[in-house]
Description:
Elements: E1 8-11, E2 14-17, E3 37-38, E4 41-42, H1 51-59, E5 69-71, H2 81-92, E6 98-102, H3 106-109, H4 115-122, E7 126-130, H5 136-143, H6 150-164, E8 167-173, H7 180-189, E9 193-197
Parallel strand pairs: 2-5, 5-6, 6-7, 7-8, 8-9
Antiparallel strand pairs: 1-2, 3-4
Helix pairs in contact: 2-4, 4-6
Amino acid sequence: MNRKDTIIYEAHGNLYLNITNRCTADCVFCIKRYSDGVYGYNLRLSKEPSVPVIIKQLSEHELSKYKEVVFTGFGEPLVRLDDVLEITKWLTTRGIPVRLDTSGHAKLIYPDRDVAREIAESGMKVVSISLNAQDAETYNKLCDPKYIKAYEKMLEFAKDISKSGMELRFTAVDLPVVDIEKCRKIAGEYCADFKVRGYSGSV
């Protein structure tokens, strides 16, 4: 039976955008390893939706009733940077706050672009970066990033986000190998909010 791909879904008073299943890491704790989605939504895409399709679906919602629209889902939104920028501009010109959840690998995906500046200029309000570990060694074991020096470049990108004037948030998953207090301290050093994410998969 064919099913319609879930591009947009609701939870916690927010509207979430699932625009890609591609990612720049292969985290051991990724929900894709043990589930097809979240909150009862199947987030596995048969194909990536075009910008017109995404905007059409957004326009069918009463956007003002949501706290924010969030780029997240089953992949890394910034693999579609130009599309993220276009959709964010469409939303922010309508007064809708937008957040980006990202691995923070933008400086590696687009070494010749000032991604933080471009995101800020699109109207993005909040960028949440998956810090995930207290040091590069732990990060590489947990996240298996596709790039070398991904942890260091992620922190550089976080610094760019802070300088751009957007609100920065770091997150980490509560796993035995993750030193949550050290992660919290790093967040403090970057003037970032810090959120601990739970893990419900197998250890």
